[in-house]
Amino acid sequence: MTSNKQPINFLNYPLLKRFLKSFFYPRIFQWITVLVFGVIMVETLAGPSSVGENFGSAATWVLWWPLIPFFFFLLGRFWCGICPFAWVSDLTQKLFGANLKVPKFIRKNGLWIIDITFILITWSDHIWGIVESPR
Questions:
Q1: What's the whole-model pTM score?
Q2: Which of 14, 34, 38, 84 is the least crowded, having the fewest Cβ atoms under 10 Å away?
Q3: Residues 25, 62: one domain?
Q4: Backbone dihedral region of 99: left (phi > 0), alpha (psi from -120 to 50 degrees) or beta?
Q5: From residue 62, how far is each of 123, 130, 133 by CA, in Å?
Q6: Residue 2 forms part of a structural domain
Q7: Is 3 a member of any domain?
Q8: Each residue's pLDDT tens digit, 55-106
Q9: Do 90 and 34 meet the contact criterion of CB atoms below 8 Å apart?
Q10: In whole angstroms, what separates CA 133 from the centre of its chain?
């Protein structure tokens, strides 16, 4: 017995198709996400020094990180489409960038640079307890 289920194509729904092909998609979600991230950053840096009382820290460590796997499981790559990091990076490059090519050293060793940076951040947390202070 084989299943002949067809995948759901959201473009078959006229109203949804019009939205997905409009100027507002995915920008509206990116704008909302940038606003939420901005509030979290301001709260983290300007809020109380105690992690337990700081909304930015709580939103990041208690809500955000545990919810990421659920979002990916339930929504797939939707998050990748609305993530504000690429949008902010593109905007910054457009406004301030020099259109320089990525240096060969970084292209060749980018993965190692990311790995070493992650290890240094983890080590810094164990030595100085950076997770215990929002700043």
A1: 0.60
A2: 14
A3: yes
A4: left
A5: 21, 16, 15
A6: no
A7: no
A8: 888 888 788 888 888 878 887 777 777 777 777 788 888 888 777 788 899 8
A9: no
A10: 21
